[in-house]
Every structure is written in C-alpha cells, then in structure tokens.
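Duplicate of #3305? Posting structure anyway:
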C-alpha cells in the first residue's frame, strides 16, 4: 500500500496480515447505507459535501477490504455437519472484495 501515516504508529508498524484481516472484517460490516447515515449526521450545508464524503468513505472502505481480505486465507466460520459436510464463508467474497473460486481443495489430517 502507498499510504503512510504522518507519525510512526506502533499499531501499524507491528501489524501482521492476520491483524489486518481481523480489522478488515470489522470494516466490512459498514454498509453503504450505514456510511451514508453517519455522514448525514454531520449536517453539511452543501449537499455536494455530503455526497463527496459518503462516496469517499465508501471507496476507502472498499480499498481496505480489497487490500486486507485477500492477504490471508479468507475462509471463516467453518462448520462440520454430522453427516460430514463442511461449510464455510469466504470473507473476501462475502465483502465483494473477491470473486468466488471455481472450487476449493481441502486436505484433512489428524493432529496428534
């Protein structure tokens, strides 16, 4: 990423890919409607400012998701049913930061 903070921040300097993934999953919860509602609270006098801020924050959210939901395996919420069926969510696909794969390959082993 090209963005650099104005001052050194240990949280960013020590951030690992899984930390960024965790944070991006939180950011993914902010819908376009939620972002627009938050910007509305600012009560800008110029509707163009409201529109600009809303569009900018949505674009930034989407960049965060694209950058960080694809750096680690995005498989979350695995569930093994009694019949042996494994289901899961792909966090990057759910956030529209990636397209679904054609297939997934799973290797299962016993850990002792």
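Output from current build:
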């Amino acid at each position: 990423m090209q963005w650099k903070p104005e001052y050194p921040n240990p949280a960013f300097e020590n951030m690992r890919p899984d930390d960024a993934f965790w944070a991006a999953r939180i950011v993914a919860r902010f819908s376009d409607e939620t972002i627009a509602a938050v910007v509305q609270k600012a009560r800008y006098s110029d509707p163009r400012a409201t529109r600009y801020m809303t569009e900018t924050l949505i674009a930034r959210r989407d960049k965060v998701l694209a950058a960080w939901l694809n750096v680690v395996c995005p498989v979350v919420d695995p569930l093994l049913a009694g019949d042996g069926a494994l289901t899961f969510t792909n966090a990057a696909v759910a956030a529209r930061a990636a397209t679904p794969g054609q297939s997934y390959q799973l290797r299962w082993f016993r850990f002792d």
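Confirmed duplicate; merging threads. Residues 16-94 form one domain. Residues 84 and 109 are 14 Å apart (CA to CA).
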